[in-house]
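Hi support team,

I've been running sequence recovery on a batch of backbones for a student project. Most finish fine, but this one hangs at about 90% for roughly twenty minutes before it completes. I'm not sure whether the input is malformed or the queue is just slow. I've pasted the structure tokens below so you can try to reproduce it. Let me know if you need the job ID as well.

Thanks,
M.K.
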């Protein structure tokens, strides 16, 4: 530290001596005022030079910190986008699950439905993101006891019709489920499918 201070003082002394020597060489005329101003600026520059070096060093350190921080900022920004995408995906899953539970409850309220389950398919964008709009609802039902507790008469099936009858649901039940779901969710009837639960 002492060596730096002594070099600094020597530099100031040399600049002052140089300015005095130049002033002695100049004749006494109107140019002498301008030369004195310029020599004064050189002396001030010599005095302020260490301060300017300290300021430049601090700005250089800050610039390096900012450039290092820019890489971290890009990483943070990427992570925040990934987190937002994951949060959106989870929200869509919760939404899909809740709509399926609501549709199940609506189907269970219809007379002639003993059990129900629903699946909901959402609309996807071109980049495979879900939008939240309902694309299709499939309701699986098991015919049985009605909502007011009456039993439904069993259907007798002839042996050669056994395969076809399992897929059939009473048209009134099917129509009622489709009507309720379309009215509640503002869907087209073509977006709702009612099937018999296996």
């Amino acid at each position: 530290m002492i060596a730096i201070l002594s070099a600094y003082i020597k530099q100031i002394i040399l600049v002052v001596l140089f300015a005095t020597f130049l002033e002695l060489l100049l004749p006494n005329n109107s140019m002498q005022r301008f030369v004195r101003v310029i020599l004064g600026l050189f002396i001030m520059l010599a005095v302020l030079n260490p301060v300017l070096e300290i300021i430049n060093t601090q700005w250089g350190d800050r610039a390096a910190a900012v450039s290092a921080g820019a890489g971290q900022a890009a990483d943070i920004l990427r992570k925040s986008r990934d987190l937002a995408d994951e949060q959106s995906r989870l929200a869509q899953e919760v939404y899909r699950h809740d709509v399926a539970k609501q549709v199940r409850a609506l189907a269970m309220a219809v007379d002639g439905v003993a059990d129900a389950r629903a699946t909901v398919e959402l609309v996807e964008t071109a980049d495979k993101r879900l939008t939240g709009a309902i694309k299709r609802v499939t309701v699986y039902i098991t015919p049985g006891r009605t909502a007011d507790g009456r039993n439904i008469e069993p259907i007798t099936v002839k042996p050669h019709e056994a395969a076809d009858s399992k897929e059939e649901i009473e048209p009134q039940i099917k129509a009622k489920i489709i009507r309720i779901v379309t009215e509640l969710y503002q869907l087209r009837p073509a977006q709702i499918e009612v099937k018999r639960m296996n």
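--
Follow-up from support: It reproduced on our side and the slowdown came from queue contention, not your input. The radius of gyration is 43 Å. No action needed from you.
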